[in-house]
Amino acid sequence: MNERSAQGHETRTVLLRGGEVHSPADPFATAMVTQGGSIAWVGSESAADSFADGVDEVIHLEGALVTPAFTDAHVHITATGLALTGLDLTGAPTLADALARVREYAAARPADPVLLGHGWDATHWPEGRHPTRAELDEAAGGRALYLSRTDVHSALVTTALLELVPGAAESAGFAEGGPLTRDAHHAVRERAHSTLTPARRSEAQRAALAHAASLGISDLHECAGPGISSEEDFTALLALAAERNGPRVHGYWAEPVTSAADAARIRALGAIGAAGDLFVDGSLGSRTAHLTSPYADAHHTGSAYLDADGIADHVAACTEAGLQAGFHAIGDAAVAAVAEGVRAAAARVGTDQVRAARHRVEHAEMMDGQTIAAFAEFALTASVQPGFDAAWGGPGGMYAARLGQERAARLNPYAALQRAGVPLAFGSDSPVIPLGPWEAVRAAAFHRTPEHRISVRGGFTAHTRGGRRAVGADEGGVLVPGAPADYALWRTGELVVQAPDLRVANWSTDPRSGTPGLPDLTPGEQLPVCLRTVVGGRTVYERPNE
């Protein structure tokens, strides 16, 4: 890209021209002007001539696409950075390869008191099993090792780490020959992460923020809380993000609230809500999601961490305190408990008050018509991760193994949620699924269960405007005059309109519809490449040699 620029970063006026601007203000726009941290104008190339001499900078797009920047509505930033800069078993094709990665990492980090790793998933390993403790002891050279499963709801550990956590073997969720879950997992996780130095933690956080910026992400919802991270980690992250130009970090602290004092303490941490991963249940991969009927591959229904009464208390107290509440709920029993609890809270404090608070539910994977209707009734944001279906859906996927194909095919019903008017916000749950907003939009548009598919435009909106609305920033996530200058530039192919219903798609391509196109996300097609990310008018990422 060719550009000319002037001094005055914060108040400068910038003209972008010669590309495609994705804006509902003008579906045929090719140019945009920003002033300071806001969008001032969107329009045609011919009209851009009148601005050219009065701006501080001109960016010649050379056909690039300009879109609102993305918001990832569910991330764990420190853990993401540790995966980026440390031992990451995501994508390890075999058990043998995973053990080899552990050996290599242990050799490269001789001074670490505890080795930290993430991302193993034995579901598709040809060996058909996870590593034994003895195998990990050998691979780690007898050192303490914490190795979280891809869903972060269970972990494998070495003998040396167990010796550092007295009482872990007597805790709920301890398994002598397998992954640790529940209290045992939380205890070893806390001990392992307590060994992170401030410098190592900052390194990880900076890496995660830089990576997000390189993917066109302007905003991240950090889902923290006891058992997930520490208050020190949370406050340090918020302080670091506040010092940088972007991406912004919106912090949630997942701790139950029963009083105004509880709410004040959570606000004092810098959190915008007592939400995120306040666990009602666990995960399907670790067989801890709470189901109404047993797993297909286990004789139990998972784990219930919070019941409807506890949910009602939390929602009512948060609503009265003007604080956003939220929960992690995956299994059908867990999501139904959330609906029941929110209904009970609304009976106490008023439905309008509950709706106005914009409470949210993370994941919400197993939903029937009744729970979807409750989400719509109480304006609960469904903070969902389309990458889950891409990774684990389909006839041969983990969902089918855990639930059977019939139940698995009901998961993540995005089309039904959208039809009911439930607010959708897309995220990754990184490091569970790597950051990748276009991948998430593709996964929603090409859901493994066709009836759950939504249009690319609907998915794109959920990953841009939906995430901003979830934190009360209604003006963000769209390129119109007066909106924040949060945008990304992309190198991409032909712009199209993709929707599950071909009648809608065909009409949308008619110029009379005024529907701006988006990149072709058909599986196998190359995804857009981010060239630049701008947050509040400030460039936070620029692709080298572009």
Automatic annotation (TrEMBL):
A Pfam family matched in the record: Amidohydro_3
Origin: domain of life: Bacteria
All copies of domain Amidohydrolase, residue ranges: 57-541
SUPFAM superfamilies assigned to the protein according to its UniProt record, in alphabetical order: Composite domain of metallo-dependent hydrolases, Metallo-dependent hydrolases
PANTHER family: IMIDAZOLONEPROPIONASE, PROTEIN LONG AFTER FAR-RED 3
Protein name stated in the entry: Amidohydrolase family protein
